[in-house]
Write a structure and sequence with these properties.
The protein has 5 helices and 35 strands. The protein is mainly beta. The chain folds into 4 domains: 30 residues; 231 residues, Umud Fragment, subunit A (Ribbon); 214 residues, Exo-inulinase, domain 1 (Jelly Rolls, Sandwich), CATH 2.60.120; 66 residues, no CATH class.
Length: 575
């Protein structure tokens, strides 16, 4: 009798616990958090809609490729259905067949409800809200304009009350888009040339960044995406660094000058396409050689200026056909030099997530960021990160001898910023970031800015692109640089241009201006009939992506069963 009573009591306890848990979950979802599924790609790559996971066959970089988007921001129509081909955002490999790739669900957001009932959202926060044009639709975007402000998008940047807005470093990390990760450099690919290359190789025309005579002239040696330079001598001071067997003898710094800086430079090598202009000097075009008809609209000779111009990247078959048309070695060399130059392009606002957009031509992006791991091995010299845009050159100098970090602008010998050198950087690898987002210089080490940002101005936007925008240099040091990454800022396009594009958009009390990170396909405040989102329409703040899944398959004989499995790699906090 007692045993039966114990069983029924245990069963009742379990049932009561389940009921209590269910009630707690219902109350929690009703008053605290709620889940939302993202279907479109307006916030990619920060947040993903329905997409396919693609691995580039050339560089093995994995990236998402969108299959659902906001409605077209061009009145001519929507994006065509059934995407077939993708392009790698890392190395530019095109024609990647995605037809057989399974579709992934969009990111699932866990949203803290009513989080803005008492505390208003901050600029650049991701928020969930009701669409002001269609209140039954729930959107997720990023806050760009705050109540009482005047907002305008110009040349890809955000202007608040007529002034260019400067994002702080955390906001920059939240919106930055990867341009190139050197850890995924294509190998054994005849159509690829390294993007990071020593200046000595660049001048001599060598093909590989790993070549160079370190004994006669110290240079950067690259292997497996790790770059090392030893610009020290037998009299150079040595500091004990774990793993460096040559740190046993005290040494002194050798005499050096600015001309002795050894540079590793970034060139944005592309495989094909582009609308950039490249030119080489040429006294005259041989009358016996006809310009290739298939490329005649992109290759032209200008007799007045005595130079040959190419628009976009010259295809290799075109270059070979023109070169073989003449036995003149100087002519062949000129064509080959133009071929090489034409493949070094400006960074543009292309997204690997997007398919071909009939209304959007890629736009040059000047706001870049460089990130890498830096390890000092020995020496008392200088390490430099140099970035250029238009007529401005910014130079962050780590002076080991004086234990200072300084920022120089152009040729001015006086630093505009100075900070103390942290001794910890000499003992273990440090993560370095340098950014020119929003016309300001930010230099950060291990996540923290070294000094306050430095704002600057440039000339005409059209002339702002630089074919070698980033350089890393060293002298009197043995250092190692690895995990090199280049990012770009979001370039905000015009959308339908209804609000905040041709003229500033004023916001009233409790009104917000929203923008999507995937600007070319985002339907947001630029394009809605009603630009502003009121505070009452805000639903909550996304906390993190939870319970994401990916398609799985189980085969048994001739039968195949599709099911969904957890994708833990996509679980992350929303920034």
């Amino acid at each position: 009798m007692s045993e039966t009573h114990d069983r029924s009591s245990s069963t009742r306890t379990v049932m009561e616990s389940l009921v209590s848990l269910s009630l707690a979950v219902i109350l929690f979802r009703t008053f605290a958090v709620e889940g939302y599924m993202i279907s479109t790609g307006s916030m990619a790559p920060t947040l993903l809609g329905y997409h396919k996971r693609v691995t580039c066959p050339a560089c093995r970089y994995e990236f998402p490729f969108g299959v659902a988007f906001d409605e077209s921001v061009d009145d001519s129509g929507k994006i065509a259905d059934s995407p077939q081909w993708a392009m790698c955002p890392n190395c530019g490999q095109g024609g990647i067949d995605v037809r057989t790739q399974p579709r992934n669900e969009g990111d699932q957001l866990l949203v803290q409800k009513d989080s803005y009932s008492f505390i208003p959202p901050k600029r650049w926060e991701v928020v969930v809200f009701r669409n002001p044009d269609h209140p039954t639709d729930v959107y997720v975007k990023r806050v760009a304009g705050l109540p009482g402000e005047s907002v305008q998008v110009r040349h890809g940047d955000l202007y608040i009350n007529g002034r260019l807005h400067h994002k702080h470093i955390k906001a920059q990390r939240a919106v930055r888009i990867l341009v190139y990760d050197d850890r995924f450099s294509p190998q054994n690919d005849k159509f690829w040339k390294p993007r990071w290359i020593p200046v000595s190789d660049l001048k001599s025309g060598q093909k590989s960044a790993s070549k160079g005579d370190s004994q006669d002239a110290p240079t950067w040696i690259g292997k497996d995406s790790v770059y090392v330079i030893d610009d020290t001598s037998e009299s150079t001071t040595t500091r004990p660094i774990p793993g460096d067997a040559d740190n046993s003898k005290p040494k002194q710094l050798a005499e050096t000058s600015d001309a002795d800086m050894k540079w590793l430079t970034y060139r944005h090598w592309i495989r094909s396409g582009g609308d950039h202009r490249s030119h080489v000097p040429m006294n005259s075009w041989p009358d016996a050689i006809a310009l290739p008809e298939s490329f005649s609209d992109r290759l032209s000779y200008h007799a007045e200026g005595k130079h040959l111009i190419c628009i976009g990247a010259m295809p290799s078959d075109v270059a070979k056909r023109v070169m073989l048309a003449s036995n003149d070695l100087s002519f062949r060399k000129t064509i080959y030099d133009l071929y090489l130059q034409s493949h070094i392009a400006p960074v543009t606002d292309e997204y690997g997530y997007n398919r071909d957009l009939p209304w959007h031509n890629p736009l040059d992006v000047h706001d870049l960021m460089c990130e890498f791991q830096l390890a000092f091995h020995r020496g008392e010299g200088e390490f430099v990160v140099q970035m250029r845009v238009a007529d401005q050159t910014m130079r962050g100098v780590f002076d080991v001898e004086s234990r200072q970090v300084q920022l120089y602008v152009n040729s001015d010998p006086r630093p505009v910023r100075t900070a103390e050198f942290d001794e910890l950087w000499l003992n273990e690898p440090a993560r370095v970031e340098m950014s020119l987002f929003d016309r300001q210089v930010i230099l950060a080490v291990n996540g923290e800015p070294v000094f306050t940002s430095y704002p600057f101005q440039i000339g005409q936007e059209e002339s702002a692109s630089d074919r070698h925008p980033i350089q890393i240099g060293a002298r009197g040091l043995k250092v190692q640089v690895s995990e090199l990454k280049v990012y770009r800022d979001v370039y905000y396009t015009n959308g339908k241009g209804r609000h905040g594009v041709n003229e500033p958009c004023p916001l009233g009390d409790g009104e917000y201006f929203m923008l999507g990170d995937n600007s070319p396909v985002s339907l947001d405040s630029r394009s809605w009939v009603n630009a502003a989102v009121s505070r009452e329409q805000l639903l909550g703040k996304p906390l993190f992506v939870h319970l994401p899944s990916k398609p799985g398959k189980f085969r048994w004989g001739n039968h195949e069963i599709n099911f969904r499995v957890p994708d833990f790699s996509r679980i992350r906090y929303v920034r």
